[in-house]
Amino acid sequence: MRRLVVRVCLLLCAAGAAHAAPGGTERSMEVVLEPASGDVVVVADLTIGTDGSYRLRYRDAPFAPHFLSMRPFQCLPAPPRLQCHLPYPYENGRRITDVDLGDLEYDLLFLVKQADEFGVDFWNGRYYRLAWEDDAIVGVAMATDMNILASSPPEGETRPIRNNDLTAIEPSDTPYPTLRIRHARGEQQ
């Protein structure tokens, strides 16, 4: 029985790192937002280490700085709206596996607002539910109230947004309904 438990553990551990770094090397990917129609926008670069740790660096372009609700935001124009990156304010382990992309989901939070509005409403959040699709990571935009992040997370909890806090939305109701993390240009797949 003990050997079976050890084998299962080894299989699960190996599966958890399978997408992290094939061939035991670090890999570079790019994060793109896809509108319902039109060109994709490359917004960040992602480096995944052999142990599943990652580094995410947002690009300066195509974002534009906006000062909304008394704080700075980096926003993408999507007339007549803006989609603004919302940095996650709490601890994040920045590690992914085949079965857990939660840390990365929290690094990819956004708010949507009308471009002609002065402030930003945290209730109009976008949370990309991520999943592996072959050798890419694909996220579907879900609506959520980001006011949940206004108060500190419960003791010991670093992921306060729950499944019941997320609502499916029609692709036409958000500027970028899909987020895709794909191999960076020039990297072998």
Distance between the termini: 39 Å
Given helix and strand content, the structural type is mainly beta
Order of helices and strands: HEEEEEEHEEEEE
User: What is the share of helical residues?
Assistant: 10-25%
Radius of gyration: 18 Å
Largest sheet: 11 strands, antiparallel
Question: Low-confidence segments, ≥5 residues, pLDDT <50?
Answer: 1-18
Mean pLDDT: 85
Number of domains: 1
Keywords: Signal
Signal peptide: 1-20
Protein name: DUF2330 domain-containing protein
Region (Disordered): 168-189
Descriptive account of the structure:
The protein is built from two helices and eleven strands, in the order αββββββαβββββ. By secondary structure, it is mostly beta strands. It has one domain (2-183). The chain has helices spanning 2-17, 102-106, and strands spanning 27-34, 41-48, 54-58, 64-68, 71-78, 81-85, 110-114, 125-133, 136-144, 167-168, 178-183. Strands 1, 2, 3, 4, 5, 6, 7, 8, 9, 10 and 11 form an eleven-stranded antiparallel beta sheet that branches. The longest helix is centred in the first third of the chain and has 16 residues, at 2-17.
Write the SSE topology:
Elements: H1 2-17, E1 27-34, E2 41-48, E3 54-58, E4 64-68, E5 71-78, E6 81-85, H2 102-106, E7 110-114, E8 125-133, E9 136-144, E10 167-168, E11 178-183
Antiparallel strand pairs: 1-2, 1-11, 2-3, 4-5, 5-6, 6-7, 7-8, 8-9, 9-10, 9-11
